[in-house]
């Protein structure tokens, strides 16, 4: 990895350290502030929807301008929003800040675009998952620290303030990286309006639809597992320190493993990731107050979800022109967020009926997602198209000579 990719990995590591302090207990913390599970699901659904609305504009900006400049503001907005969440005294005041925090995710397509452009000839599946493994590594110890701090301080709000300070350090690292924007050398020669960019992505329509279903099927059971553990009489610091740490370790190890297995094999990683999510849902369903090990194992396997998203980004990035990668990845992030938004609304309603119902829904839908990916035939990449066109010209010239 180059120096710039290492710096981005370290910046994501610090972001994981800060976010891991509070990420896994946000739904339960909102409930403690007075929100009901359906209200928590509705807020998380709205937050995911706003994030979804920001990804395509964020990707479009990454295509038009330097990806570094686009992603810097996302870091700054996220840090300020984290501070706002820490200062909120009721769940009503918490809501606007969590919405702003999710909107700051608009920079994710720019981060992916930057990583792709700085990767050179390295396999994208391996490079992207390796870089974002930095985030997972940072999330390993921070949930445990957050759980201990909340137990000692008898308050969870300071975790958001501490997270904001760590985000500030991460922001300074991002400022230090170099620009990598080769697409700008010829991007001005093309029409980069949103309509034009989406028209150029039309051949990928069925790929996007299949990925949306895969995301939706896997996400339903990942919205309220903290609330489920609360129903099993887990304390909030236990959810953060035990379950959150297990999930972060899973995200790191599974990201590295699936990224290596998927390099050059477009569907293998997506299939294995879904299989691991299926196992996670089964473990949650079988969990009881006495069998805490099953819940921890389920959280470990949840680490496959972010890897599914990054593997889908790697697959799409290799199938589009350089000057439209931001838009392509932004659209994929939008579909992921929309899937999360709809899944959050459904999960909240299902949880009100039965705390295990969201896991059962995922358990039923994931096998369909496996079939969808098995039948997925990715479009021909630009490199493959050039090879095929060259071969066709050679054949035609040979026929003409004869």
Give the SSE layout.
Layout (H helix, E strand, L loop, with lengths): L2 H18 L5 H7 L4 H28 L2 H21 L3 H13 L4 H11 L5 H30 L3 H19 L8 H4 L6 H7 L4 H15 L5 H7 L4 H27 L5 H19 L5 H10 L2 H14 L7 H29 L3 H18 L7 H20 L1
Helix pairs in contact: 1-7, 1-8, 2-3, 3-4, 3-5, 3-6, 3-17, 4-5, 4-6, 4-8, 6-17, 7-13, 7-16, 11-16, 11-17, 11-18, 13-14, 13-15, 13-16, 14-15, 14-16, 14-18, 16-17
**Through-space gap between termini:** 50 Å
Number of helices: 19
Strand residue percentage: under 5%
How large, in whole angstroms, is the Cα Rg? 21 Å
CATH topology: Growth Hormone, Chain: A
For the biggest sheet, the summary is: none
Count of distinct strands: 0
Number of domain modules: 1
- How would you name the CATH homologous superfamily? MFS general substrate transporter like domains
The helix content is over 70%
Q: State the assembly state of the protein chains.
A: single chain
- Structural class computed from helices and strand pairing: mainly alpha
Q: Which CATH-level-2 architecture?
A: Up-down Bundle
Low-pLDDT stretches: 379-402
Order of helices and strands: HHHHHHHHHHHHHHHHHHH
